[in-house]
Amino acid sequence: MKIDSQHQSNSDKAPDNALMVDHPSKTTRHKEAFMNGRNGADTDENPKDLGNEGAPHDQVKKDKKVSLLKKNGSEKYDKKDYLGALVDFDAACHIEPLCASILNLRGEVLRKLRKYGEALADLNLADKLQPDNAYTLSIRGTLYKEIEDYPNALKDLNRADELDGNDFFVKTQRALVKNLTGDFEGALIDLNHEAIDLHPNQVFVIGYKGVVNRELGHHDIALGHLNRACELKPDPYVLRRRGVTRRELLDYQGSLEDLNLANTLEPYNDFTLSERGVTKKVLRDFQGALQDLTMANHIKPDQAFTLKHRGSAHRELGNIDEALQDLSYADTLEPDDFFTMLELGKTKTQSHDHEGALIHYNRVVEMEPTDPRILRQRGCLKRMLGDYSGALEDFKKVDEYQTELFDVLLTKMERCFTKYAMKDVAGALEDAMVVRNLWGVNGQSSVKGEKLKLATTKNGGLSECESSMSQKLCDIEKSTSRRLMLWIEHSKLVFSKSLGRGSFGYVHRCKWVDKNEDVAVKYVSSHHKDAFEYEARMLANIRHPRVVRFIGCSYNEEEKEGLLVMELMNQNLRSLIDSKRRENSPPFDLPVAVDIMDKIAEAMAYLHDQGVLHRDLKSSNILVNQSVDGKEEYVVKIADFGMAKLQGKNNMPYFMTVDVGATLWRAPEVFRNDGCHKYSFPADVWSYGITCFEILTGEVPFEGTTLSQIRQKVLCGLRPRLPASCPSILKSMLTKCWALMPCDRPSFANIHKTLKLYLGRDSIDPKAGDVIHPQELRRLLS
């Protein structure tokens, strides 16, 4: 199944149709129309033609002036001076308002200027004055095509063809309309007519024959036509189409060469850029693909084809939020598109929204009910959601349709995992033996055999599903020097309710039966076991009153999920802000707000001192409890270390080159990340500054703007606007947190010290290197 060449509905209409219409025959046609206007073609409505016996002297002068205006207008049209031509034709129409030939000419110029309503009015009047004029019908048919009124376009062009069956322009325009309406055979009949074969502009004709044959699925024939057209002239339109055809024939390098040359000959063409982006994506140059698709979207926004492939590139790069935004928008522009549905399913699977992913996979299966790989993926999703019988039903269907050994083995393996989850150990071992035997005989030395080996390793292995995560968790406990981790039996954790989603997993409220204690439990699937182990190790070695307390680990054998057990907090900071926010007033009194800011800074100072770069600091990852004494004072703790990283072994900061973290809280250096720009601890300081803005105002920064607009604003120096009532000491501190250069941002140790001074919790030490100068602080506090 090909999913890289879905460029049918929107891309074949524009921008290339404009090129097809601009054909030299139209210049000749204008000259013919001009001559017809002079030689009696309009005698029905204008019997007093130039040179008639007995014509009054004034009429002769008028006719001469009209002829001159028509001639000048036609010459300007030939030079593409459409506004100048319109002035002349307007003047001629003012003298002779009921002259069909002049109306035709003015209608054609108005069409070129995209003034379709006025053009249609002129051509309708010309048709009424002089019915069945092939020229009028051909131009009006072309206009109908451009406004996508294809039935009327075909009606006019068919009648024009009846009147003049050897007209090149009519044949080509009708071929275009037939192609756009899916009548590819009819389009080929027009393109193969002898009138077209004799026309000098063979590059366009031959190239378009290639386009239509591609639509019919005759890719080899299409490539032959396109090759011949390119030999005659390397036209950008033909090169674009050949590039797409070569990609569909799996000649990816040839496709890239054609699209590069098309872009050189005609830069900034959205069709070229979007198709080149798709080719780069197939070649796994996702960063290059993203650049081309973003440029194409900038040139011509709201194109479903561009958005869905840019969303796919974002997904491959791990930009899940951006991928979901592009794909969801593409789905609204072009509902029920197969590629968009499939990519949405994959993206939501990566974001652990398995229920949402299943909805899209169900829609995809409705479109392609016999595709074995899609059925297998849906079966895996059903297994993750606990629908084991539904998963086995999908795997059974896969057996009916799959043909490749690799697919057979993968399906058997997934069915093995499903049976094991159902505690059907005998059935699981039976499937495992089949996989091992088939793989051992046919696949161990092949490339796909290595892929299967990798797949079985990722899913935990086959012997008793070889799910050794529980053993690995025991190894974590043994390797943790401080032995702070407790092993908790999964059966002792009773689910209560869902709390939300963290990085790499879902968080639920559970009752820990042994301790009769409510706890928060983060569930991480086996697909992310490396991230699970990393986060467990990190949490086990962190102990601070401002960091959420890690209790221990567990493992769910049925679901193949690792569990991180942590203390339960009442809510996150964002939900607290939303509950206390009032119109035109901040959510907290200033002392309360600064107290929360200080506690976050204290926690982050500790983490940075331990070499931990959080990378996902935001209000929803900060947990709060209200003080038990009833005062408006809060216990504040940092949570969710799924994205965090430890410093290097040489005690130097761990410089990152991976683009992570929620977009609204991203520092400029993270936005600039292209694999070369590095970022470290100051990136957390930036995120802290954005979180402080939420605490002080209750607002989400840059609310109502797209992800790309946020990136542009941040990189251009735009920062959230603090209210006038905010003390200058806090404004100065946050301005430094939002410095463009990471080296200009303060450390959390200095931020904590400054806020303690503001709250009166510490004395002033001029040597401490505070964010705010002590003299300014004394003045403000006084």
Automatic annotation (TrEMBL):
Pfam families (UniProt xref): PK_Tyr_Ser-Thr (PF07714), TPR_8 (PF13181)
Gene3D superfamilies: Tetratricopeptide repeat domain (1.25.40.10), Transferase(Phosphotransferase) domain 1 (1.10.510.10)
Record flagged with keyword Kinase: yes
TM spans (from-to): none
Biased composition annotated in UniProt, kind: Basic and acidic residues: 45-61
UniProt entry keywords in alphabetical sequence: ATP-binding, Kinase, Nucleotide-binding, Serine/threonine-protein kinase, TPR repeat, Transferase
Residue span of region Disordered: 1-63
InterPro entries cross-referenced by the UniProt entry: Kinase-like_dom_sf, Prot_kinase_dom, Protein_kinase_ATP_BS, Ser-Thr/Tyr_kinase_cat_dom, Ser/Thr_kinase_AS, Ser/Thr_Kinases-Pseudokinases, TPR-like_helical_dom_sf, TPR_rpt
Compositional bias per record (Polar residues), positions renumbered to this chain: 1-12
SMART domains reported in the protein's UniProt record: S_TKc (SM00220), TPR (SM00028)
An annotated Gene Ontology molecular function: protein serine/threonine kinase activity
The TPR repeat ranges on this chain: 100-133, 134-167, 304-337, 338-371
SUPFAM superfamilies named in the record: Protein kinase-like (PK-like), TPR-like
Annotated binding of ATP, by residue: K522
Domain Protein kinase: 493-755
Protein name, as recorded: Protein kinase domain-containing protein
Species of provenance: Ceratodon purpureus (Fire moss)
Lineage of origin: Eukaryota, Viridiplantae, Streptophyta, Embryophyta, Bryophyta
